[in-house]
Each structure stands twice: as structure tokens, then as C-alpha cells.
Amino acid sequence: MLDIQNLSKTFNIGTDNEAQIFNNFSIHINKGECTGILGANGCGKSTLFNIISGVLMQEKGIITLNGININKLKENERAQYIGRVHQNPSAGVSPSLTILENISLSDKKCQKFTLRRLIRKNKTEEFREILKTLDLGLEDKLDTEVKYLSGGQRQSLSLLMATMKKPALLLLDEHTAALDPKTSRLIMEKTQELIKTQNITTMMISHNIKDTIKYSDRIVMLDRGEIILDVRNGQITEKELLSIYNSRNYGSQLTEAV
């Protein structure tokens, strides 16, 4: 499904601050599964997501998605295949636009359009029905600017927008880290519901060990750009996972919070 072969990425090449993140890194992500990605800050998690989505370019390596080589595709071109939800609830939405305008933008993802033709009235009811699946009452607030929504509402909308076009791959970049525990649980439940009902292949970065075990089919741990653990869920206990993490001198970055 997603296949990465011999990926290499170095920052600040030729300077005193040169730092190699990946060196001949390879991984295969299975279709329809959720792969949890663990690792300390600086281990390469977000860099990997940025390379997959086209925000960063690697020095070498081949990335194929559903058999398509996406190496030469720009970020906006990869967006037709890849959805992404960021840690910041406002990163996946346009706060100054209304809920209806935001969801209309998502509906026209990778299409050419003018602002005057952004909203198609004949699709409004369809959008209402899609928003109802969030159980947040957003279908009754179509004309509300997104900046007035709570963090949880914005992240729910971001998640919905990222999956509306049924992407081949969904990247969840610590998408509940900025939320309170109760809201985080709700977002994780909505996430699981969406990716399971739509059979969306997902990679999820998290520092929350309970979420990783509960919601992932496979668990991968990175350290300095290398895979140090790759197991199916059920093959490792929470205690064992935390022990491996702490043995790499990660301190308390990996949490056991619900």
C-alpha cells in the first residue's frame, strides 16, 4: 500500500549543524490498517510525515502509494491521495471562514475553482448529513466562523475534512495532543469510527501509550531515524512497551494517560 525504500534525509548539509535523520530507512504500511508511530522528540516521526506528504524532499529513496511513485509529486498534488490532521486544531481548517465554507473547500480538494463558486447550494444538505456524523451539532452552525468553535470541535471538523474524499492514506500527527483528556477520548473514538467504516489506511503519531495500544493494529517505535520495534497489536503489553521506550532514555515523554 504505502512502501518506502532506502529513504535518506539530512538537514543543514555542509554546516556545523548537519543532522542526518534517516539513512536508508524502509517501511511498508499495510492497506486498511492503523499503524501507531512512537518515539521521542527528534526521532524522525514528523519528518517522516512531512516527507510522505511532500512538505520536505528526501535526498534519496522511493515512496510509492498504491503502486504510484509519488516522489516527484508536489505537496498539493499528493493531497489528492493523502489526508492529514495536525496537532494544532486550527492547522487543518481556515478559522476566518465558516463551517460551510471550510467543508466546501474540502469537497473541492485538488480541484480548480473561484471563491464565488466555492459554495454550491445543492450540496448544503449533503454537508449537513456529513456533519451530523460528528454528533456535535455543527450541522446547525453552518454560517459560524470556525474561529468561534472549541478546540475539540475544530479538530473534529479537521478530521472530517481530511477524510471526506476517502484518501488512500491518512496521517494523524499527534492530533489529540493539544486537547484535554475528555475531548481527546472523544476525538479518538471518532477517529477510529471514521477510519474503520471507510477502511482508510492510517499512520498515527502519538506519545500516549494507551491510545497507541487501543487504536492501532500495528505499533512501530523509532529511535534516531531507525525502527527499533515493529509488532502487531496484542504481541506486546503496555508495561513492556513502556519499558522499551524508557530503556532508550526517553524519560517521561511517553505517557500512560488515558
Fold and architecture overview:
With 258 residues, this protein is of the alpha/beta class. The chain is built from 8 helices and 10 strands. The protein has a 6-stranded mixed β-sheet with strand order 6-7-8-3-9-10, sandwiched between helices. It has a 4-stranded antiparallel β-sheet with strand order 2-1-4-5, with no helix packed on it. A hairpin with a 2-residue loop joins β4 (60-65) and β5 (68-69). α5 (151-163) packs parallel to α6.
What attributes characterize this protein structure?
8 helices; 10 strands
Span from first to last CA?
31 Å
* Strand residue content: 15-25%
Number of DSSP strand runs: 10
Shape: globular
Major beta sheet summary:
6 strands, mixed
Structural class: alpha/beta
How many whole angstroms does the radius of gyration measure? Answer: 19 Å
Task: Give the secondary structure arrangement, pairings included.
Layout: E1 2-11, E2 19-29, E3 34-38, H1 45-53, E4 60-65, E5 68-69, H2 75-78, E6 82-85, H3 99-107, H4 124-132, H5 151-163, E7 169-173, H6 181-197, E8 201-205, H7 209-215, E9 218-223, E10 226-232, H8 238-247
Parallel strand pairs: 3-8, 3-9, 6-7, 7-8
Antiparallel strand pairs: 1-2, 1-4, 4-5, 9-10
Summarize the structure.
The protein has 258 residues and is an alpha/beta fold. The chain has eight helices and ten strands.
